[in-house]
Structures are given as structure tokens and as C-alpha cells.
Specification:
about 70 residues, mainly alpha, rod-shaped, Mic10, mitochondrion, transmembrane helix, membrane, transmembrane
Length: about 70
Amino acid sequence: MAHDDARVPYDVAVERAVDVGLRRACYGALAGGASAFIFLRGPRARVAALAFGVGVGVGSAYEDAQRAFANVE
């Protein structure tokens, strides 16, 4: 991993942001779906838990992307 204070080119930052965004959205969907399947019965509650998991993953990816684009050349 690169240091936080190191400058990175724009294309590398975009590639990292897309990669991390997709990965964390999928991980959030899997975690939300698994917990919904185990703990919840109603279909609306399961969809809400799944959406919450995706939202957490995307929010985490957005925060990471903001940090990555702060160091763009």
C-alpha cells in the first residue's frame, strides 16, 4: 500500500475507487443478506436489511475514495 501523503495519478485513483466501491458494496450486500436471511422473517424487513448493508458498504467506499482523491496529482 502507498503512503497516505504520496501523490497518485488520477487514473490510479479512479481505478482504486471503482474497485473498492464494487468490492465493499458486494460485501455489504452479502453481510446484509446473510443477516436478513438468518434473523428476519418478513420480505420487506429482509430487503431493508439488505439495502442497509449495501448502504454501509457504499458509504465506506465513498469515504475511502474521498481520501484517495485528496492525494491526486
